[in-house]
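Q: I'm teaching a short session on how sequence maps to structure, and I want students to see two examples side by side rather than one. Could you give me a first protein with its sequence written out and its structure tokens following it? Keep the formatting plain so it prints cleanly on a handout.
A: Of course. Example one:
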Amino acid sequence: MAALLAWLHARVLAPFTRLERFAARVADGDLSAPLEVERGQAFGAWSQSFDLLRTELAAARRREAEERASKEALIAEIGHDLRTPVATICATAELLELSARSPADAERLAVIQAKGRQVDALIGDLFHAHDSQIAALGVTPEEMSSQVLADLVRQADHRGLARIGVLPAVLVRADRRRLAQVVDNIVQNSYKYADTPIEVTGRLDGESLELSLTDSGPGVQASEIGLILARGQRGDNAAGTPGHGLGLFICAQLMERMGGHIRASLPQAGGLRVTLTVPLA
């Protein structure tokens, strides 16, 4: 009798208990839980089936995560690439409205501005919903002349407020498309919060080129200077201005992934200075 009980425990109860624990771990989401399969025991076939089910479930979850990440990255990338053209359209319509030849023309330009702001708000909502996927944006650094940085500032500065000094003639390494996003964001922020000329200067610092964009607006409080690069953080002067506090955070993420850095500082003369550190090639 004792021998029979020992056999039942070894061949039936113990395997069933292991199978039960395995099923509980898989149900809790642990798809890497180990399962020792003994083909000769009573639950051998069931154990193999459970193990196969676990493997297929893990593979399906990986595929789902990859597809979701790909879609989120595409949404984030499209959103980033739309913001600057929309802002340029709104600003251009605003300038044209000042010289409109008739009230009807002014009204049409006002409609363009209103719809542009509406699209920008929708893009902002898109960012807010998918900001967790910002890190999925592709970054491909390449060698380029430092004069490309000056070109990017000119392209972003549709209002002509930037005063670009002579930049050191060196080769840097960065992703031109992502660097354009960073520069666009800084210039647009200056338009939005300062609305003053932007002094653009460059200098060499070790193995990097530092590009500084300085306005003479109200800036931010000294206590906020370390926060405005963080996710969802905005200065007190942003109250009443649309935004989600993602712009400079996105810039910081992109600069880091290009091997560079971004920092904000308060010049003695007032305003805000944003400095990009771009690695030399």
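Q: Perfect. Now a second example for contrast.
A: Example two:
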Amino acid sequence: MRVLIMSANHLGSEYYRVTEPVRAVRELGADVEVVVRTGLSTRTVQSADGGEPQVVSVDAEGADVVVLQLPKSAGMLRCIELLQAQGVAVVVEMDDLLSGVPFGSPAYSALVTQGMGRRALECAQQADLVTVSTPALLTEYARHGRGVVVPNAVPRRIAELPPAYEREPDVVTVGWTGSAHGHPYDLQEMGSGLQQALDRTRGRSRFAVLGQKGEARALMGLTDEPTEVPWLHDVDAYATVLGELFDVGIAPLRLDRFNACKSWLKALEYSARGVACVRAASPEYDRLGLGWRARAARDWAKWTSVAIEDPQRRRDQAAAAHAAVLAGHLTEHVAERWVDAWRSARETRSRSRRKGA
């Protein structure tokens, strides 16, 4: 079986949903050839009304299955139809609810107002199979019943780096990864919880952001500006630094429709690097089952304080979560699920062709 994957070229999504799964599939030794591209080779003609050019042919490069990551345009929908007409199975890969991006997000205008999120749903409905990272996304994108969940996982080489819990810091670093500008509501979910914990442990703790702190101080009601460590655009380097910098990781989320579908990835990354975790009560974080669960400011204050003040409890929690990742949440553990999904799509397309014959 030959599989052609069109990557959306989004750093994190490409790493966890394309690059690393493909690496794991190749190491698995399955009877499948996988090729990754950043776009499809197409031929277009100018539309009669002077509008957008129309796609009239797509080169599948001899693939049995074409995987489209995050397709969200009329052109991509047309590509799916053309590929299927050639007998090529199409898989749509989605790891976020694009139509559920909250107002205030930098992506809201393009995804919601301009309808790109709706186009993504149309592409998923046309596909032979949809792969997603969470059960909630399966409900959203695979209403036709042709979908599978392949959860996010981490490479073994990352999980086997020296874990954070082996350190004995004099000052405990509580950290968050992300861009405050891109998460306009999540950080506020902690209320005064983080500041309470920092006040209780003044001189023994600090707060740092790996990414872009933006207005984090105001959003979280902090007395002091957090330390900022700029984004590292190599994901392996990012994961390495995360474990070298943080002793405690926080993962707050506003419980809205978008975040209800969101993967467990942040808590998984913390756990993979041996960083103790305090996290929101989201469906996916609960399903993962790692980290201390926080719903209100008092919970964030309590568990963050415990993680700072009690080194043994911090180490015990982080070590147990780290062991859970090694036991069941590595990319190699889900490699066969990717292959099974692609084979299922090929079988669905074959059945459709036989019915149409």
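Q: What should students look for in example two?
A: Point them to this: The chain is about 45% helix and 20% strand. Also worth mentioning: The chain has two domains: 2-153+331-356, 156-328.
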